[in-house]
Design brief:
Blueprint: H1 16-26, E1 31-32, H2 35-40, E2 54-56, H3 61-73, E3 78-81, E4 98-101, E5 108-112, E6 117-120, H4 126-134, E7 138-139, H5 152-158, H6 165-168, E8 175-181, E9 187-191, H7 203-207, E10 216-223, E11 225-226, E12 230-238, H8 241-253, E13 260-265, H9 266-276, E14 286-294, H10 296-312, E15 317-320, H11 324-335, H12 337-342, E16 347-354, H13 360-373, E17 377-383, E18 388-395, H14 400-419, H15 438-441, H16 444-457
Parallel strand pairs: 2-4, 3-4
Antiparallel strand pairs: 1-2, 5-6, 6-10, 7-11, 8-9, 8-10, 12-14, 12-15, 13-14, 13-17, 16-18, 17-18
Length: 471
């Protein structure tokens, strides 16, 4: 839970001389500073509102370089922004200054079929790239829930995941090269478009997931893989959450690698049904969705084995989708979860903790008890196949007593994940909402090392300042 008091944050205004310099580079129509424009770029999925002083909309890498150079020379903070779909405030201009929107840097520059790579600008929507590469028989697996509107630059900054990362890995596994504007306005190029490269430090991996605090991406080269020939989905219904954890363990022990393995509890199921009438069973305590993909024959065998495992580990009913349309409707229901759950109360606190898979049967019941302990409406769903659970508290944000209970509950959720060797975030990042909890996961010397890395890339602390607890 994060509430922001702008009066306590030192915001750095943009002087008229800098605004004039920016307009000389971009023109009047791509430098926005009236109240309405600033409001439109003042929020993300957290619903926290922090307006920037100026919004700039570059179209080229060279324009980004000039923007960063002018701002840094004049001591002005710079905040990069993709689609603003993040859940931790990473794209909010916490300390004012200039916000760089990449909405016009949205071109797929090249799809190299022979080498199976794509070169893109940071404003390309994830779904747009996926459809483009699938037309030539290739596949880009990372699929955040917001994949139809989130952008690849934001995905790289947050190291985004999604349902398919249980088999295919997160964004990090697909980034081969980056062009990044650093504080001097210069471009550093990291990585190679090759499957092997062990020369020097892996700066590319350092930049991925850095939440825009080290530099600003202007070009990304992504690895592609062959598109799977077939896929099948099964739906399993359970009467308790611990059995779901057992199912997950047994599926992997059987040597099956599902392409997606998702769960939702009773409150989540009913929220989705209220939202979109997808035909999910309202009386189910827990629902598990399992997708397998690959060669058609292997897929048929694996989905039948998955169904058998579900039944052996406590599922009271298992159905295998018989058509692509039936399967897609199930996944539409899963993707509708976040907006559906948001309707349950005025304020949604969405945490994305991670557990090692082996501890899920033991940890998941304890997670539910936290909601009961603090008398809060708690909705749990997520990527159970990789241990990434979205724990949502739906509260009345105008009730100070309920907010206080929710803050204590969130801290216990983080403590539970860390007690089992997990993490306070699996894919949403830290941003501003989890910055105060970083010392729970990292020792003082580890935090200091990250701060030193930040200072090497950003000596004045002007590149997306105030994020990840690195100030």
């Amino acid at each position: 839970m994060f509430t922001v008091d702008l009066d306590k944050i030192q915001r750095i205004p943009v002087p008229d001389s800098v605004k004039r310099a920016l307009r000389e580079i971009l023109g009047e129509d791509r430098v926005l500073d009236d109240d309405m424009d600033r409001m439109l770029y003042s929020y993300d999925a957290t619903r926290i509102q922090i307006p920037p002083d100026v919004v700039v909309i570059p179209q080229t890498q060279e324009e980004v370089q000039k923007i960063v150079h002018i701002c840094y020379e004049n001591g002005i903070p710079v905040t990069p922004r993709g689609a603003g779909s993040g859940y931790t405030g990473g794209a909010l201009a916490l300390k004012g200054g200039v916000l760089i929107s990449f909405e016009k840097m949205d071109k797929i520059l090249d799809i190299d079929e022979e080498n199976a790579v794509a070169r893109v600008q940071p404003g390309v929507v994830t779904f747009t790239l996926q459809k483009a590469v699938e037309r030539v028989g290739l596949f880009y697996p990372p699929d955040p829930a917001s994949y139809k509107f989130c952008t690849l630059g934001g995905n790289v900054a947050e190291n985004a995941g999604g349902p398919r990362c249980v088999k295919y890995g997160v964004t990090r596994e697909y980034v081969m090269e980056l062009n990044t504007v650093v504080h001097t306005g210069e471009i550093i190029h990291t990585g190679k478009p090759t499957l092997k490269d062990v020369a020097g430090y892996d700066i590319t991996r350092l930049l991925i997931g850095s939440e825009g605090t080290l530099g600003i991406f202007t070009e990304i080269t992504l690895k592609l893989i062959p598109k799977p020939k077939a896929k099948k989905t099964a739906k399993a219904i359970y009467k308790d959450i611990a059995s779901v954890g057992e199912t997950v363990k047994e599926i992997f022990k059987a040597g099956i690698s599902p392409s997606a393995l998702e769960f939702m509890d009773k409150l989540a199921i009913n929220a989705v049904e209220d939202f979109g009438h997808f035909g999910l069973p309202r009386d189910a305590e827990v629902l598990l969705l399992i997708e397998v993909d690959g060669h058609p024959k292997a897929v048929e065998d694996e989905i039948k084995e998955v169904a058998r495992i579900c039944e052996l580990t406590g599922a009271i009913k298992v159905d295998i989708a018989q058509t692509d349309i039936e399967a897609e409707k199930l996944w539409e229901a899963r993707r509708a979860l976040s907006p559906a759950v948001a309707k349950l109360n005025r304020t949604k606190i969405n945490e994305d903790i991670v557990f090692p898979r082996s501890y899920l049967p033991e940890a998941l019941p304890q997670l539910r008890e936290i909601g009961k302990k603090y008398n809060l409406k708690m909705v749990n769903f997520g990527h159970i196949g990789d241990g990434n659970v979205h724990a949502n508290f739906m509260i009345n944000g105008l009730d100070p007593e309920e907010v206080a209970r929710a803050e204590k509950a969130v801290e216990e959720v983080f403590d539970l994940a860390l007690r089992y060797g997990g993490s306070i975030t699996g894919e949403h990042g830290v941003g501003i909402t989890k910055a105060n909890f970083m010392p729970k996961q990292f020792k003082p010397q580890e935090m200091e090392l990250m701060k030193k890395i930040k200072r090497v890339f950003d000596p004045k602390n002007l590149i997306n300042p105030g994020k990840m607890g690195l100030d």
